[in-house]
Design goal:
Pfam families: SnoaL_2. InterPro entries: NTF2-like_dom_sf, SnoaL-like. This is SnoaL-like domain-containing protein. It comes from Megalodesulfovibrio gigas (strain ATCC 19364 / DSM 1382 / NCIMB 9332 / VKM B-1759) (Desulfovibrio gigas). The protein is α+β, with helices and mostly antiparallel strands. The chain has one domain: Nuclear Transport Factor 2, Chain: A, CATH 3.10.450. It is built from three helices and six strands. A six-stranded mixed β-sheet has the order 2-1-6-5-4-3. Strand 3 and strand 4 form a beta hairpin.
């Protein structure tokens, strides 16, 4: 797993929204629940809100490199304060120059 993706999961589980945002490129994008968050401040706010609402904990289960798209796809078990917890979601990361350029969750 690329180091920045390991850092993403570690800091997300620590509920450190700023450290999560720091994993992303300056023009990085997160797509979650059909909404797009662009740039470090929007990503930090998204993660803060997610932490407050769901108190999520993520456990990566599997990873594969998609050679066609260049994405790293991680399947993770997500538990927290939401109906149906835990659930397995897919996280599709595009990493460029050691930073996350794009993250699509449960794409």
């Amino acid at each position: 797993m690329p180091p920045v993706i390991e850092t993403y999961f570690r800091t997300a589980n620590a509920h450190d929204a700023q450290a999560v945002a720091d994993c992303f490129a300056p023009d990085g994008v997160v797509v979650d629940e059909q909404r797009e968050y662009r740039g470090p401040e929007a990503i930090r706010q998204w993660k803060d809100a997610s932490n407050a609402q769901y108190a999520p904990h993520m456990e990566p289960l599997a990873m594969k490199e998609d050679s066609e798209t260049g994405r790293t796809v991680v399947t993770a078990s997500i538990s927290g304060s939401f109906p149906g917890s835990p659930v397995d979601l897919k996280f599709a990361f595009t990493v460029e120059q050691g930073r996350i350029a794009r993250l699509e969750i449960d794409f």
